[in-house]
Amino acid sequence: xxxxxxxxxxxxGFVVQYLLGLLQIKNFTKNxxxxxxxxxxxxxxxxxxxxxGTLVLFQLNGKNEIEEGRYMQGxxxxxxxxxxxxxxxxxxxxxxxxxxxxxxxxxxxxxLDAQHTLNIIDKGGEIEKIPSPxxxxxxxxxxxxxxxxxxxxxxxx
Length: 157
Prior knowledge:
The protein is of the alpha+beta class and 157 residues long. Helices cover 46% and strands 17% of the residues.
């Protein structure tokens, strides 16, 4: 009986998480569409499991100047987009660390990712997929197991 209750609670938790995730995606879509209706949008990401994940959206004009910025930062699905002030008029591809000294470290990383993304797109390249924090952990575990197996079978480097 205990295990049935545990499974039901886990299923309910999964469904609630899924529904709240959908609300967060809806919030992203609304903000992205809002900014996109006025020009190009650069997106910067800084995913994380234990620290706050961060996402930035910059509306750019034809000169790659930031007209409006928004960011979402948090560890839960209750995070919502807020205005990112202080970078209006800056060219995104010319923003430096000195320009970002008033922002927290995670937000700076997301802003620099948006800059990196813009530079790649402007050169005609494709954006590499950032693995989720969970996928990074899985890859590390796989790497450890591969190294152990290689040593057992005499496959040293």
